[in-house]
Every structure is written in structure tokens, then in C-alpha cells.
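Dear support,

I submitted the protein below through the web form. The confirmation email said the job was done, but the results page showed an empty box. After a refresh the structure appeared. I'm attaching both so you can tell me whether what I see now is the final result or a partial one.
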Amino acid sequence: MNDEMKALVKCIKDSIVSERNHIAKYISPFIAPNSSDAATVYREYDRATSNARYHNHNVRNIPYGNIHVKEMNVPTFHAFLLNKLRCHVNQNRKDYISSRIEDNFKNYDEDGDWEFLIADFEFNGETDHDVFKAWLMFDHLFDISDQIVKMIESNNLISIQKHLELIDKNFGFLKGETKLFFQLKMDENELYSWLLTQIDSFKHQVEERDLWRSLKDEPEKHFQRVFESYLRLTCELYDVDISPETSTGGGIVDFKFSQGNGSKICVELKLSQNQKVLSGLMHQLTQYKCGEKTDKGIYVVLDSGNPSGAFYKLVQYIQEEKRSGKNTDHIVLVDATEKLSASNKK
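What the results page shows now:
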């Protein structure tokens, strides 16, 4: 790893530590209301809203009869905290921190124009494992931050402390506080949501980044191998076990993803050409979930052309479920049919 890449990894990790402190500061009124951090936040809110509150006080006590002056908006304390966790000025906070990291690797000329010192693919970690891991940690920190924001929005404040502890458990090693390295412990619902996100990334690679070329007209076993190779590295980084062709007692499921015995997800893959593509969802996956004692399963169907009649019935089933207001996120259709190059598109 060259010096610039080492500097990039350090910059990302330093940003994670700084953002952890930012999160801890603005949730302190909920988890430690008598702390010095909380006192700082109370004073900051008071300063941020003092002009508006003073203006509104004067408006309500105006002695001049029919003079109409509008009151100014004063955010609630909750709204103030949520905004601090979400944004920096008018920019999404994650985007703001990312741009600050980028600024460290831009070279400006006399006219104010700039260029990256690191190629885009290297900056994003496509060729360097340490950079890739650092960005994964960065993304995960903001995933946890988003969960905290949702808890505050719904007044579910009990679990906020646990989420801060989760941050420290996963990222504390960056401050030398623990030897743990990036092992997120997820319950079954969290693992399910995480896995749907990873499969959606796989779908994007197939449909938008030409991975379809490696899958078109290939057998189902090849689809399974490509799927496994794409997800395996990320699973290792997140301490998620990926087990192909696992016996469930009721048959062999294509993949079981798990963290311990309490978090298990069954994933079944099918090609659209398969005549049993509908029964695979209705019967096979249900049986596998039952065998693994989980109610969480994901069904991934790859369409590389020449789909069976059963595939069209599956599409119709999905549409009917959606019209009934039912969630079909667990059924992922991936389009691996041949795509026109950009130069041939009109």
C-alpha cells in the first residue's frame, strides 16, 4: 500500500472516530442528561433559538394594535437534535463527511480548478482491501446513526444507549480501546435487512455494471457461484457466515446466512427458465425456513432470457401481493438479459 492509500485509510478512520463523538454528543441529552456533553447541547440549542424566541416574545406583546408581524419558527429540542444528527447546514451529514475526506486528496491549481490525487477506483477501494474495509466501516457507522434517528423520531429512546455501545464495540479499536475488529452482531431482523441491501447491490452490479455478461445463458449452478463469490468478502468483513447448499431437514437450501444460532436467513436462487420457479417460492423456501426454524427467507430469480410460463405467473403473483398491500421485498428479480451499450442507445 503506497503512502497516499495509507493516508486515505487513516483519514476515513479518523472521520469515523470524529463522527462517533458527534453522535455521542447529540444523543447525550437522552442517555446522560446530567453530563457535560448534554449541558453543552442545551446551551447550543439555547443560542441557536434565542433570536427567534426573543422575536416571538416581542410579537406576542406588541403594543401597536393592528400591526401584523409573523412569528419565527422555533424548532423543538427533538427537532434540533435530529437535524444535528442528519445534516451539516443544508447537506446530508454523510455526504458532508465524505466530501471532507475527498478534499484531503484534491490538488488545486492557481485558477481554483482541482483534480484527485487518487484515481476514483482506488479512492473507492476497488483495488485495495484496506480502503474497501475502511469505507465499509464508514457506511456502517452511518447505518447505525440512521437507526438512532428513527428511534428518536418514534420516541423509542430505550435502545439508544445500546446503539451507542454497539458503535463503540465495533469501532472502539480505532481509539485503541478494544481488540475487536468490525464484528457487527445483528439480530435476525437486522441480518435480514442487511442481506437485502447486499443482494440489492448484487442486482445493481448485474443490471447496471455489466455483470449480466457473466450470467447470461449460464446454468443455475454458475449463478450460485457468482452470487456466492460476490457476497462472500462482505460477509467475512461483517462476521456473517455464508453456507452454500445447507441441509435443512426438508431439503437442501442454496444458501444459509447466519450469525450464531439466533440469526438465520434462507436464500434460494432460481433461473427464470425453471418450470418450478413459482413453486420454489411457495413450497421450497417455506419448507427450508421451517427446517431452520426461521421465518426469514429471500428468493432471488435471475432472468437471462427465455423465461418459463411459471416465471410470468410469479410476476403476476408479486403484482397481486403488492395490490393487496403486502410486502414483497423478499422476492428479488434480477434482469440479466442482454443490454445495449451506451453508444447504441437512442
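Response: this is the final, complete result; the empty box was a page-load delay. DSSP finds eleven helices and nine strands in the chain.
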